[in-house]
Amino acid sequence: MPGSVVSQAKQQLKMIIDAYLLESEVVRVLEACDYADAAHDGVTRKSGEPYILHPIAVSCILAHMRLDPETLMAALLHDVIEDTEFNKDDISLKFGKTVAELVDGVTKLSQSSDKEFNKAASFRKILQATLQDPRVIIIKLADRYHNMTTLDALRTDKRARIAKETFEIFVPMARLVGMNEMADNLEHLCYQNLDLDMYNNIQDALLQTKPKRCEYQTKWENNLTDLLQNNKITGRIKKKNNNIELLRHFVKNDIDLQELTHSHAFEIILQSIADCDRLADILRNSFQVLHYEDHIRRPLPGGNQSLMMRLKGEETTLSLTIQTELMRKAARFGVVLGENAPQACRSAIQASMQNLNVLVDGECAKTTFNELLDYLHQEKIWVYTPHGHLHELPQGATAVDFAYSASLFLGNHAVGAKINGETKPLSTPLQSGQVIEIITDVLATPNPDWLSFINTQKARRALQNILREQDIDEQRLVGEQALNRALKLFNRSIKDITQADWNNVLEWRHLSSLDHLYEQIAVGDLLPQLVANHLFAQDAPQDSASSDRLIQGTDGIDIKYAHCCNPVLDDPIQGHLSRRGLIVHRSRCHNLLHEQHLHPENIMPLQWNTENIEDVSFTAFLSINIPMNDEQISELIYQCRKEKVGVESVHTHDNKTYVNIVVHNRKQIAEVIRNLRMHFGFPRIARLAQPVNTVETSIAS
């Protein structure tokens, strides 16, 4: 029986590749299949199936995408080095160096007994190999997809662990290289394995409303068909399975069950960009447009190009993706298309790859892995050079970050920037779609003040390397000048600092001389703004949570938490330097963004110190999109306390319930929101920046 199953799998692979490969290429792929079968002989998976069925399935997935023979051969052999007695040289001798390199690229490392280190080192190795040959990540994604479809044989805890890893790493990696169809399939399987109760509730809601949904879908389709015909636009309308998108929005708490079941989606595939723009104009005149984004001119990660519109109907909403056939293909397969992909797609993927290249420069595998996670999940912007070259940067990046992203020369000699043709300071935060031109002077040198507002590791490393290369006397002069500029915020200068003040600063920094202080400032080890703050900020006593131990590198600094956004431990944060001291804001706080536009030199990157700290408490504010009676409020309090979350107050207002809770960190907020949604029928629950000031029901502690 096992032999029969394997034979059937091999025959299926042959049928797929016969359709597009040369006869000689088919022979080579099947040789690799037989080689892998012999190498894995006698080995079974957790399900009891012969192990060879897995690599054959991975190769079939790639063959459906019409990948080249070398990729298919590497997919068949991808576990040989890791799990059998054969090595890279054996594969190279039999199938060539390229296939061997691809197989080695996806092979995990087992360098020590530390599983976390091995995991980090393996991902770093995959990154390095992907930068040499993108087919490595294509094989790895297909491998992970097939593994995700066969999780039933594993323990529940292991399934959840693999799904979490897939969601955090492989889904965003797939989107990064434009393989959005693969990303959608992986994401769907993740939801199924991470939170089965929530997944089943959503599926039940979709099933119960299916007849009504189909009725509305037909109406929308007829309206759109008439619109194309009446305006003589040639194209096709395709119902889009938007279950993945609905799941994503629901899990992220963007919509509730009612909205979930009243949303529909279509793709409209047209012949040209001009047709796409024309249809968008017609739709604007025919429907109420709730949302519009032009991603033809401003591609999404992976180079995904389309016009995206959300229309309002009488009882439902419609999401439209309008694109050409080539754009649709590129959005599904991305890097798989290679040189056949549109230029915008290739440019976007190349920009992402350049950022990955910066990540693998570090020596520590665990640091690289953590930086990879940060990069994959941070919000990004896309900006362009005057020649149309795309650069991908994190949200909040400045003109200096762009300069170093473009080249070391531009960064090291930048004196200003033109943003959409208008001259702006180098500290100006950038926005997606802008055209950036850096103004340079060959005599100019980097300014240590830039360290207070740059947002990318590449710019920070490059700047610090340049600063450290300066002559020691020059470093001291640069450090003194930087501190003098920082003191201007307090209407002071170095001349106003007394010997007692200097002694205080040196004791605070554990330094023996003023020269050492200036050197630290000059090379970026110490921000001059922090020294100025330590000397002259006249602030009230700190909050009950000790700021000194919660924020990295701020010992001896007067710190307050902003009441406009109320950050809690593990929120992304930035600091705003004021005459009252250093104010900690959540990174997307509107007040912080306003101040960043006015005085970017006073904004500082901050990190929480999560090691060796005792429990601290923060207040967070939630709104629940249902009014609650006394019995439900009692149940809410009980559910919160089960999660070891305190409840300060609960009140209802305008058909919503507002709750002030006491938590230790951001993760605890997410957990309590998840449990409250499950318990009360999946309403939308939002975290508010500030409490809503109405009549409250106070809760005894």
From TrEMBL:
Record's superkingdom?
Bacteria
Q: Which UniProt keywords apply?
A: Hydrolase
The protein's annotated pathway: Purine metabolism; ppGpp biosynthesis; ppGpp from GDP: step 1/1
Q: Where is the TGS domain?
A: 379-440
Any Pfam family the entry gives: TGS
Where in this chain does the record put each HD domain? Answer: 51-148
Enzyme Commission numbers on file: 3.1.7.2
Q: Name one GO biological process term.
A: response to starvation
Q: Which reaction does it catalyse?
A: guanosine 3',5'-bis(diphosphate) + H2O = GDP + diphosphate + H(+)
SMART domains (UniProt xref): HDc, RelA_SpoT
Any Gene Ontology CC annotation: plasma membrane
Extract the GO molecular function terms from the UniProt entry: GTP diphosphokinase activity; guanosine-3',5'-bis(diphosphate) 3'-diphosphatase activity
**Top-level enzyme category:** hydrolase
Signal sequence extent: none
Q: Which family does the record assign?
A: Belongs to the RelA/SpoT family.
Question: Any idea what this protein is called?
Answer: guanosine-3',5'-bis(diphosphate) 3'-diphosphatase
Species of origin: Acinetobacter celticus
Task: Specify the taxonomic lineage.
Answer: Bacteria, Pseudomonadati, Pseudomonadota, Gammaproteobacteria, Moraxellales
